[in-house]
Write a structure and sequence with these properties.
Gyrase A, domain 2, 4-stranded antiparallel beta sheet, alpha+beta, 8-stranded antiparallel beta sheet, protein-phosphocysteine-trehalose phosphotransferase system transporter activity, 4 domains
Length: 643
């Protein structure tokens, strides 16, 4: 039963997202990465971003790289499976949309995403083995270590085979022919076929390495290592796809099935050895050399840039552009200096997220921040924390960037780098044990976490209004047991206009009363005032929270979903932490501008934390002026004890 319920949850999420993007007929293709569904849409105007974000289980929606990206977190694989089962949905990568950068990102994500977790898992296995060798050095000489190391290293060494499968799918080429081509490339470095100088049989690569001259039909071959080769494999499969389509057009159907792969393999394998491989290797080494050049000028500056901006790259999806360079470095030198600063970048965001978890008074935000911080710490997956917590609150994200920059600079200054392809996290940091100064890596990462946590916790952030517990439907008397009514307090209308009950507000969160008791006003003029005297807890362009001296908390929220306007049509007149008096102007807003942008300007006032008060909404309230009493708050005092 539990499995059925879980499946139903993913089905419902997939259905909601599919409706929001305009239905299956509007989906050109859909893929996924570690935490996101990545849609290529036929008509972006048909997608309802607000509806998708409102779907239960969706963390955020990002439009970047020519894609409509839906962040759902670690369960993305299950949701993707549910989507793939929907009639009319085209799974797998499409042709990519947007400019050159967008297409490049689409290409990399399409090829690497399907086996990303396998790379991460085997990288973690190698990291754990490194810890084992540090604890017991003799372990490295055992056959047990050799078997486990083979399990962790084989996928990377034979990476061209995996790339052949996914690249063939991306380029719509024959996957088995692509595997045969990749196998031939790996064969040159693994199977002995030529007599060496001492008479023993050696591989093509070993023969060339010993000074032997390799030619094909008299043309000299520049032999490179094709183990772990990334760019040569992708380009070879790309060339294969075009040759296959050309042959399919000219070959008779009766001969096509066996002649096409025969010609393709006989042409593409030599062409790769002669041209594609050497050129691709030169390009890859050039990219790697460019990174190395930056690091040689100043590792600290390079580390600060990458450590500080890595999560910004993640937001826009351009971090995938670094993957081929990292893999190329791993293939040529066994490590990539690009990976060293990433641990500070990732764990700083996780620390900021954890600080929000401890500090926020919003229960729903706390429920997101807790699991998100754990995901960031242990698995190196920060998207749930970024979109659900730190970026949402802005300041914690900035604090994480600062911590990542400082920590990344320190780690890079020590020459730290991971030996395998790992997702940076607290567990996989052991992959940096043998490269560079591991102590500086720990210091840098620890300092990054401390900075992000401390700045978030001490300097704080504009918290989301705390939601009051839902009222007990069976409760009749708002007065709590053991307490009797005392003095009454009147709360004024924040704006002039027509008062309506919360049930009439076109937003389920407000209309359900889960955030607190109150009412709404359809504004007649664009001026919002403080309904009570107190301290401004939150001051956003569209929403203001005020706490009275007695602990009462009142929220004034102008419009529905107007947070999406990013402050447009609003002019705040108070700041967070400021003391305000009842009736003082909080903000001015353009009613017609808000409507023209497609949003409802109805203004909601809620008592989010009644404290020692019961809340009564008077009946028969219609037209109100700013400051008219619209809520009656009755202070409660403890009933005298019976002697």
């Amino acid at each position: 039963m539990a499995t059925q319920a879980s499946d139903s949850k993913y089905e419902q999420l997939a259905d909601g997202v599919l409706r929001g993007v305009g239905g299956a007929e509007n989906v050109a293709s859909v893929t996924h990465c570690a935490t996101r569904l990545r849609f290529a849409l036929k008509d972006k105007a048909k997608a309802d971003k607000a509806a998708v974000e409102a779907t239960r289980g969706v963390i955020a929606v990002v439009e970047a790289g020519g894609q409509f990206q839906v962040v759902v977190g670690n369960t993305v694989g299950r949701v993707y499976e549910a989507l793939a089962a929907k009639p009319g949905v085209t799974v797998g990568a499409g042709g990519g949309q947007g400019g050159l950068l967008a297409k490049a990102i689409d290409l990399v994500t399409s090829i690497f995403t399907p086996f990303l977790w396998v790379l991460a898992a085997t990288g973690l296995l190698k990291a754990l083995l490194a810890v084992g060798v540090r604890i017991a050095p003799d372990f490295a000489a055992t056959t047990t270590y050799a078997i486990l190391f083979a399990a962790g290293d084989a996928v990377f060494q034979f990476l061209p085979v995996l790339l052949a499968v996914t690249a063939a799918k991306k380029f719509r080429a024959n996957q088995f022919t692509a595997i045969a081509i990749a196998g031939a490339l790996i064969y040159s470095a693994t199977i002995a076929v030529l007599p060496g100088a001492d008479g023993t049989t050696v591989t093509l690569q070993a023969f060339a390495g010993a000074g032997g001259q390799i030619t094909f039909l008299g043309i000299p071959v520049v032999m490179i290592s094709y183990l772990s080769a990334v760019i040569p494999t992708i380009l070879a499969v790309y060339a294969q796809s075009h040759l296959e389509r050309g042959l399919d057009r000219v070959l008779p159907e009766a001969l096509r099935n066996f002649l096409t792969p025969l010609v393709v393999i006989a042409v593409i394998v030599p062409l790769t050895f002669l041209l594609i491989g050497p050129v691709a290797d030169w390009v890859g080494r050039g990219l790697s050399g460019g990174v190395g050049g930056l690091w040689s000028l100043s590792p600290a500056i390079g580390g600060a840039i990458l450590g500080g901006l890595w999560q910004v790259f993640v937001i826009f999806g351009v971090h995938w552009g670094f993957v081929p360079v990292m893999v190329q470095d791993l293939a040529t030198q066994g490590h990539s200096v690009l990976t060293g600063p990433l641990f500070a970048a990732v764990l700083a965001q996780a620390a900021a997220c954890f600080a929000v978890f401890l500090k926020t008074r919003n229960r729903e935000l706390k429920e997101v921040a807790g699991p998100a911080s754990i995901s960031g710490f242990l698995a190196g997956i920060t998207e749930p924390g970024i979109y659900g917590v730190t970026l949402r609150l802005k300041k914690p994200f900035v604090y994480g960037v600062i911590g990542g920059a400082v920590g990344g600079a320190i780690a890079a200054a020590g020459g730290s780098a991971a030996e395998g392809f790992v997702l940076p996290g607290a567990i996989t940091i052991t992959s940096t044990l043998n490269i560079g100064n591991f102590t500086l890596q720990l210091v840098g990462t620890g300092l990054a976490m401390a900075i992000a946590f401390s700045l978030t916790f001490v300097l704080g952030f504009t918290d989301l209004p705390a939601a009051a517990p839902a009222a007990d439907e069976d409760a009749v008397d708002p007065v709590r047991v053991g307490e009797v009514p005392s003095e009454a307090v009147a709360v004024g209308a924040p704006v002039a206009g027509q008062a309506v009950p919360l049930a009439a507000v076109p937003d389920q969160v407000f209309s359900s009363g889960k955030m607190g008791a109150g009412l709404a006003v359809v504004p007649a003029e664009g001026r919002a005032h403080a309904p009570v005297a107190g301290t401004v807890l939150a001051a956003m362009p569209h929403a203001y929270g005020i706490r009275t001296d007695s602990g009462l908390e009142v929220l004034v929220h102008i419009g529905i979903d107007t947070v999406r306007l990013d402050g447009a049509h609003f002019t705040p007149r108070v700041a967070q932490g400021e003391r305000v008096e009842a009736g003082q102007l909080l903000a001015e807003f353009d009613i017609e501008g808000i409507k023209a942008a497609g949003y409802n300007p109805i203004t909601v006032m809620l008592v989010t934390n009644p404290g020692n008060y019961s809340v009564v909404v008077p009946e028969a309230i219609e037209d109100v002026r700013e400051g008219d009493p619209v809520l009656d708050l009755t202070a409660l005092t403890a009933e005298p004890a019976t002697r």
